[in-house]
Amino acid sequence: MSAIQPPSRRIWWNQPIDRVEGTWIVLALVWCLIMFAMMPYWHVAGKQNLSNEAYRISSADYAAKAQAVIDKYTVRNETDRNYPVVAPPAGSDIYLIGRLWEWWPIYELEKNQTYRLHLSSMDWNHGFSLQPLNINLQVVPGYDMVISITPDSSGEFTIVCNEYCGIGHHNMLGKIYVKD
Amino acid sequence: MANNQLFRTCPNTGLLFHKPAETLMKLNAVVAVVILLIGGVLSLLVTLTRWQEFHLLPADKFYQALTAHGINMLIFWIIFFEMAILYFASSTLLKCRLATPRIAWLGFILMFIGAIVTNVAIMGGDSSVMMTSYVPMPANPKFYLGLILFAVGALLGCFVFLGTLVVAKAEGTYEGSIPLVTFGALTAAIIAIFTIASGAIILIPTFLWSIGYIGHIDALMYRVIWWAMGHSSQQINVSAHVAVWYAIAAIVFGARPMSERVSRGAFLLYILFLQLASAHHLLSDPGISSEWKIFNTSYAMYLAVLASMIHGLTVPGSIEVAQREKGFDKGLFEWIRKAPWGNPVFSGMFISLIGFGFIGGISGVVLGTEQINITMHNTIYVPGHFHATVVVGTTLAFMSLTYFLIPVLFKRELVMKGLAKWQPYLFGLGMSVFSIAMMGAGTMGVARRHWDMAFSGAVFGYDFPAVAYTLMAITGISGIVAIVGGAAYILITVLSILFGKKVAGTDEYSTGPNAPLQMAAAPAGHGNIGIGGFVAPGTFVFALVFLLLFVVYYAVNWKYLASIWPMG
Ligand code: HEM
Ligand SMILES: [Cu+2]
Ligand SMILES: [Cu+2]
Description:
The complex is a heterodimer of chains A (180) and B (568). Chain A is α+β, with helices and mostly antiparallel strands and 180 residues long. Chain A has helices at 19-45, 59-73; strands spanning 53-56, 74-78, 83-86, 93-99, 102-104, 106-110, 115-121, 126-131, 135-139, 143-149, 155-161, 173-179.
């Protein structure tokens, strides 16, 4: 009479479905279908989506592209490590470097303008975690991920590293400023 | 082997034990519990470090302890115990001799050596790479070698399990089809074979890379294949603990599945769809298309989620039917009020079921939604989610099964019954609060695998809101409650096995032949139980509450997502 005995009918797939079970399966299936539909729906109607744009790239090439933007648009330096604060025009490609153990450089963006943010790592995996908004993206060495972002709030934002990257992981912070 | 034909019948349950299988079940279970002890001590160190007031370990020791905690718990504890379950579900439940005990021994020895080698590597301090060991962060070659040996050993165990099913069929040790619990274990074994194959595909090249034979391993490819193993191994756990739920419902209540077709169909869904769902670990990775992500998380994952939602109904549903047939038929909930809440075999299993579904299940689906993942990826929400699944769900289910196995397999009466009564509550409820508090902290942005949420040595500063610190303190307190519960489990188990009173009549081995396992009697219909044509109305109400919570929580998270910067 139980789950540790062979079923009473050998052909178990012919057993009738209980009413409670049948009703629940229908409800659960409908809910799963709704959840399924939400994801493509959000690609069409929602504003927060993951990008589908990524390229293989060597760390040297990526660093060179980032350096070009830094050289062109640096407006000042901050902290005793002289982080360049880079303010590129709206619409530009901006390259953020993740490496042991810093995010480089600092970008200064304008509110409600769109930028093409590139993310890549020079060494190991890192995690781009923008606080206090809580936007979290995986940063993988050898890949340049491009996301169009439109900051719609202003202030100082912190990039925490949330993919474990060795002994300096918990000190790997960066900044993004958004001006009104 | 001389003792190959020796069997004994448990005088209280009628279960049949083949001597070599019995020895291997005991060994695997004992090693599992010892590893749980190691993982438990580590969990205390890790928890007290993340609780910012204590901040116990220095950074390097924290990352080392966390690597060891993850691997010992998630891989070694769980899989050693699962080997015992596989042998139980094949040899014992089918009344069959274990196929090729020598190979089973070889498997056990390989797993054992593998576990030691990996632990030695971690203790060396040059392998603090976390259980995921994402390349190109290097670990000592021994780290990968140990995991490979362990995996090969586990693979042998799966083959012995399958071999035993074949022998049982050939020798006619049972009538009809295999029991549902064995069917669940078969699901676990099939998924395990797929899992281990993926593991081999990624870990062997990584090992070769670590000793310099291979120059480069693509970091993204590693993540894709690693998660084909890492995710599907969680499906092994789910299949195994669902099988344990069914077994306990049968053992404690004599419950029979509401319908074999539904329960088995749900296990089949696991095999067909869960393995593809590894994509949900890669949702915010570059270079993987949305189509692939959506396909894998919806078509594939939701059919598996559907299967879990079905088991989540049919297990308590079958208990409800059994209770109502026994006369606890009043109102919606008499059956559950009058359940044996003081019996840890039952209470543990039931808390496991509720915690897995309500906390682990709902959070898992939300976390696994392509876009919502942006707001949670790699935050401490993630360990919050999986401590609800693999600790409240799997680990607690295995603990409650242990209380059944001590008299039956180890032939000892349980000691400290009073403590045993409380153990599932301490562990299960402590872990549930722990998980929820972690998820809360993750929603505030606190990172996982992170030594210092105050960033005290960093060039820049960032202050998490005070609530985040409070939530991490709650995590610490409830974690300690759970650790006390875990310690109680280990204490009770070890003392019972060493000093428990011997169960009478358990030492008589004979050489068979054994009477074949009978088919269950055909159900006579449920009689007049239940309400309004529903035989399990109470369970149905639970299920509706579950669905309501699920819908609300899901909607709240979309709303939260809609508040962050537009991106795409
Ligand atoms: C009382 C019991 C336990 C407590 C208090 C506990 C506590 C913790 C804590 C605080 C973390 C660190 C989270 C972070 O900083 O990212 C952690 C990680 C983890 N725990 Fe547990 N844990 C317990 C039991 C278990 C069990 C039984 C398992 C598996 C079956 C498990 C599997 C893991 C895994 C896989 C990780 C992640 C490691 C990583 O990120 O690589 N834990 N645990
Ligand atoms: Cu990093
Ligand atoms: Cu990091």
